[in-house]
Amino acid sequence: MIAQKRGRLAKKTFARAVAMATGLCLAVGLCASPGKALASAAADSVSVVPPGQSLRGTEQPLQRRASPLRYAGRAVLFVPYAGIMVVAWPTEKLIEISERWKLNERLSRLMVWGGKGGQVRLAFGYESSLGLSIAGLEATSDDFIHEGATLRIDLAYLNNDKNLAQIYYRSPESILQLETFARFERKEDRPFFGVGPDSPNIKYATNRQRVVGEASMYLRPWKSSYVVLTGYGRAQDLTDPGSGLSVRDGFPFLFSQAEASEYVGGELDLVIDKRNNGIYSTSGAFLRLLGGYNEALQDADESYSHFAAEFQGFVNLYRHTRSLFFRAFVAGIDADDLARVPYTEWERLGGKTGGRGYARYRFADRSQLLLTGAYRYRVTGHVQGAIFSDWGVVARNVEDLRLADLDPSVGIAIAAGVSQARFRAHAAYSEEGWEFFIGNEVLLVFKSRRLR
Amino acid sequence: MSAAWQSWTGKLLAPVVLGLLVACAGEPVRFSDGPVVVRIADEQDIPEPGEQDFWRYSHHVNNFVSRPARLGLDPLPPKPALDVNRFGEVPSSSWYENRTSTLSPRDVALGPGGGDPGPEAFKPWTIVGMKVGGRNPGLVMEDSRGVRYICKFDKPGEPVVATGAGAVAARLLWACGYRVPDDRVVMFQRDDLVIGGGATYTNHKGRKLPVTDEQVDEVLEGLAARDSAGRYRSLVSRFLPGKPVGGYAYRGTRADDPNDTIPHENRRSLRGMRVFGAWVNHVDVKIDNTLDLYTAADGRHFLRHYLVDFDGCLGGYWAARHEARIGFAYDFDWAEFATGMIEFGLYKRPYEGLVTAGHPEIGVFEADVYNPATWKANYVNDQLWSCNPADAFWAGTVLAQLSEAHVRAAVSAGRYEDPRAEQLLTQVLVRRWEKTVDWALSRVTPVVGLERVTVDDDGLTISPEDALEFFGRPSNLRFRAALLDVDGETLAHWDAGDSPEVSISNDLLSGHHYIVVEWTATGPDGDLPSTQAHYAYGDGGWHLVGILRDGE
Lengths: 452, 552
Prior knowledge:
- Chain A starts with a helix and ends in a 12-residue tail after the last strand.
- Helix content of chain A is 17%, strand content 46%.
- Chain A contains six helices and 19 strands.
């Protein structure tokens, strides 16, 4: 073998001579170096090779060295890897195709005609008390006619929740800002659990379709405070559900005397928002006070006034990576005859946004109190975890809301967010069992009295 | 058993069987005698390649899910680097230039622009394009010579940090051998800017409109920091020669570049960025911060490969994001995610207490908590992930050739307003340099000078040095060595003590024309992976034919 190698060396003599000439030139440069040159600079035999030629000079290609255990581990880990890629690869490719063909922008531009193409987002969610909700589509243009003006169109088929079409416009942010939307929605089997001690746990349902329109005027005299004056109108039609107990059967007085209700109204909101910015707030406070009046257009319904107060406080425990969160929310309605206010106008508790641990719409009455406390912590970049507890109660009158009657729940939550999308999941436990939610940001929810 | 099941079983078992075969093969590596390659002639004439697209959102999914899964669930070590000569060094190529040992501090201060005075000597500047709105507004301008530059500015509220970092880091990475553009900090007055006749910007509806004075004023007032004399401050990057055809991929080769024959993840020159990047905190190592240029020289057309955009280095990325984890955790870090879910925030991560370096012109860039072994870029990157001990050692030897004088020279290019900022940044960089060099050189048994062979009547003496001592770093290593024959059989071994020098008697050499000496160093934490030097007898004497360090 050594003899063979010597033979090869002899054949390379000429090549080495040429290489040495090149090397000398390089060596001159390296000798002028002020630094500490290493082996190759000191070598007397250097060469230039075209790409693809072996550089290493070994008789056999170098192989990576690994124990059989590692190869076996690789075979085992291929299974979870394949599982991840089954989901990730098509997603990646779909997004790539969307970017390559500007599908997002084209679709957005098509939906929000006249504006620069913005975002098109899909909504999905799974809530254990409602089932899977999927295929909400939201297109937004942030430069509709005027730079900074937002036009948004939502189309959604959210199974067991809401099927809706909505158009929303907001003018560029300034001292005086306008906002308006029109919305049609249809909801099947909207549950109602009954009220009072007689039958609180029996689930009734109704089908509802509704048209809502509203226009708001934002006055922003200060940086972190604003006043909102809103006028709105809504009409809804209620019918018996396809199956199960109808609300009409159990509580004919709740269904309103007619099978439809129509309200117009106005509301004044005062908001002081001193939360810190960012995907997740970790310090500051938020206060919202609102009150309004709702005029029934049908004789069978009762006109009523409503009010709500909400306070959120954040205590930064450590460098905005751990914080405490407190929320107190109280709301109620008042009417000459509370019994004639349709139950769809009532306050409700339960579900993914309030009273977690209880089914959606689990509690409903004409006033509510909800207290929330949470410890929030940074998990990793873009992800925040939380341990929370909700305490809620509903009652016919505000003065009947008692702390002793609060129904507690506890849970853990996780939220992940980037500028384009946010996801949230929680598992909450109450005396009625576990409730789970996972989904992206609640795109289609307006936390508004008008959308009761 | 179904055919499909058999097929899948075969696919799963194939790597196991292959692995067993490879592991059991055990044939020792031998070097053929020959020249040391110092340059890869990968600048052969090629047809113009197409532009490589970069899809931002798809890339994010790849960053956060696919790539971490592919690399994190593969327990095999990376393959040995391929752009390496027989001594384990990286030959110069269109990717990398061995220039570090030739550079004086003045060279580093001048950077890739060399003696060019830059655009400040050639005013006024003509604005030829502009980017308004978005995340990184800026200008494209030509100086009075007609040389074109991109002008970038600091983040609002963080003057000097990113522009200074961009100029300094570009010089340091250039000094380490990478191709980078001529980035420099410039000062100018509003009157130095004139709007060119064809200068346009794209408005919010995607329409191209002429640039106006009001828009220029808006960008400058909104972004550009001013020095004490009231001059605006900008980081300008000279347009690179050639036609840009996109960045280079994390792995694989470029199909339309015949010169690109080595998968990028197997290039030691790119893997070494794990070490250089840690030093300067180059966390934003992603495809669109690299650039291939179709360049012409000597009648040939070929691609040259550049790194671009260094304003996120040092404390620059922190200035944009204000996140303490920068350099310590990925943008989305699965390991942190897994532990964070069960820690409930009770564990304080080492980086969470970080404060600014002590000067607002630097941002968060420090050397106390910094640990090169655990440093992370923003994203999982195939090249950085594949950096094995041998790659790190090579990068360590390159980095070690720089000195405090080089660092000070590079920092001077940042044109910091306050001399204390310059001093502080130099101190931090030097301390990080020390930590990085010590770590990188200690990834394997650090011996250099393996070619020093003397033959006398008693036999052969090989006189390498402890690489740490060679580069002036403290070392308390003890060395032992073993002599192997061509078939890998051990002939003798020595406890060489503080010095790795070994003498081999003629008796041991008798009958052998190829020997391997394997050094193993013992440090405070135990044995370091060994380094093998292969020697062949020829032309009347013994000479070094190859070096293998652990990981190869």
